[in-house]
Amino acid sequence: MGILNLGASALASNFKSLSRPYKLNFAVTYRCQSRCITCNIWQMKPEKELTLSEIEAFAKKNRFFKWIELTGGEPFLRDDLADIVKAFRDSSKDLYMVTLPTNSLCSIERIKSTVRTMLDLKIPKLVITVSLDGYKELHDRMRGIPNNFEKAIAVFKMLKEMRKEHSNLDFVFGYTMSRYNKGAFEKTFQEVKNAIPDVTYNDFHINLAQSSENYYRNKGADISAYGEDVARELENILSHKRFSPNPVSFLDTLFLKKLVYFARTGKSPMRNRSLELSLFMDSGGNIYPSIVSNIKVGNIKDSNFDLMRILGGDCAVKARESIRDGGESPNWTSCEAYQAMLGNLLGSLF
Ligand code: SF4
To answer: 203: which DSSP letter?
Structure first.
């Protein structure tokens, strides 16, 4: 049923504005053990992050989510990560999918036992993105952590084993292309293939590095990868992707196709639907349209955890109008892009 309800919301969003978002992007913590050169979250000293009981109160008050994308920081640093997922599973009866990344720096036992607990919740789809930004020397340098490459490979292999018993588990490598690793995908792919012989291009989700004052704390940093050479590298990856009936994989290929356009033109491939179909909540409960937006429209603790009070407020209404009129700077992030594609099915195919 979950996929049908998600599909129904996505289909409806092709014809009208939805009254409630169906996707929540939620940074469960800003704590992070990495030292990435493209992102400054690891330098933050997070305070007053939402407690489990506050998250449970939020989940109970807002029971309409069909897709939860958890992010960080490193989500697996939260001892109560599986309880957070359970809170949304218990409250949102139509929840279909939970997605989350990992930098693979927690112990593999910790990651494995948390994933197993989340799988036992029987959410129809659990998708883990294992961050990997380059071949060994490059990835470890970009992440500032020795042997991070091997740890990412070990987590991916562990997830492959777990999938043998859990068909609701999906996972990919998340490759964020920036000025530091553009041109390095093929070498990365071959090095991964040496470690995991049956890996394919479909096992990689590609993003372009983004700047954001509010989320990545890297505004103005010279990290971006755009232009014709990047577009060609993305096209080469795209040419190796194979059709898959798996909806996550299929959507990922469409996402990459649009990413080529974004890299080449610097224009958003599709209309931004953030604050209508999705929103971003930071670890303190502040609500923003998206991870690349600096417009804070409220805090759930100030609205008795009622998201609709925030989304119906003047600030959110103005922000939504501004986004609808093209007021956001061009972007194509996976946090927002999938809803934009699902809300314009014809446009996403061509
Ligand atoms: S990109 Fe992820 S792993 Fe790297 S510092 Fe930012 S939150 Fe941490």
So the answer is: G
